Here is the input.
Amino acid sequence: MPISVNADLHIHSHFAAASSKKMTIETLAREAPKKGINLIGSGDCLHPGWISEIKANKDLFDEFFLPTCEVEDANRVHHLMILPSLTKAEELREAFVRYSTDIDKDGRPRVNLSGAEIAEAASDIEALIGPAHAFTPWTAIYAYHDSLKDCYEDMRDYISFIELGLSADSSYADLISDHRDLTFLTNSDAHSPWAIRLAREFNRFEMEDITFDELKLAILRKKGRRPILNVGLPPEEGKYNQTACTRCYRKFSPEEAVAYRWRCECGGLIKKGVFDRVRELADLETPIHPPHRPPYLHLIPLSEIISLAIHRGVDTKSVRELWEKLVMRFGSEVAVLVDSKPEDFEGFDRSVVSAICAFKEGRVIVEPGGGGRYGTIKLPANLDKVLSNGQRSLFDSYDEV
Here is the structure.
């Protein structure tokens, strides 16, 4: 019998740079159900310290996690791998250890191999692999390559997914016809276990059990297993969506950036945004979504929505209390944001309910981010009308081509 599985397949442990010390197996296993996540990619499964902690918490690990890792290749491109087992992770570590100087130091190691060689190593252990946060202007495939073939060479056909990253969605990636056969993943890349970061982007799959074999079938779209929903931030909110200065965040058109020789008047570096990079690469005038492409729902974490609705800080007591009440009523944050209907919210603050519906109906206003600064989101002025004017469900507005 098919089940719906909510999965965040790209996070980091406390062994990765700039990660919270709370990124432990115990904390993640405790917080995942509150978020509504059934499956977590472990992250950092090549790090010996994290491997030891996984083994020490085997029961929790087997209940919530699959081994995953992110590595940087010799050209600075990051790759996400989903592995069949911890034993295979240890085999992959042995294959990489002689090519890396920091595999024992950083959960996300640099491996002095090409993208093709890393993909071949993944193939040797029957792991799934694809580019991580593919369009980000730093450390991503399209920061350094113009196609999947450029990066993966004769291993291109082994690539099974593309991770879109916070500054892109399906409408961006489906402007490139080379992506037609690939599954799109939306993951959080979380460095903190709390609900504002964990699963801020996630995937929903139709599977028959929560195992690697079932996930592999779902990503490869075989035997009826498949992705049925991508959930992520509005791409304009991503901090690299627009071409902008990395110091003062002034935005530039591509022509202006060239005229300025990619240096702002303030002296900062002008970094090409995802929006402009996608349009450089695009060979389609409008996105063409293949029949297997699921809907993409634009959301931000529930606490941020509540904060916008009641005009209080995300970390304030009033926001926390409303978050806890909603999660207690519905069972998880995902249930509140994705699976609820307006009539389910009887007794809750109308402004919060209207704000949730505004996101589900695509009525929010986004001032794009760029240069390393996130965009800003505003709720519509006629917020009270959102409840009565929306679509019947998020699927009603999605047309496959």
The first strand starts at residue 3 and ends at 8. The two ends are 29 Å apart (CA to CA). The chain has two domains: 3-235, 302-393.
